[in-house]
Amino acid sequence: MSLINFFLRHQGEIAEATLEHIWLVGAAMLLAIAIGVPLGVIVTRKPWLSKPILGSANIAETIPSLALFGFLLPVPWLGDRADRLAITALTLYALLPIIRNTAAGIAGVDPAVREAARGMGMTQRQILFQVELPLSLSTVLAGVRVATVLTIGIATIAAAVGAGGLGEFIFRGLAMVNDQLILAGAIPAAILALGADFILSVFERRLRPAR
Question: Residue 75 — φ and ψ, nearest 5°?
Answer without folding.
Answer: -65, 120
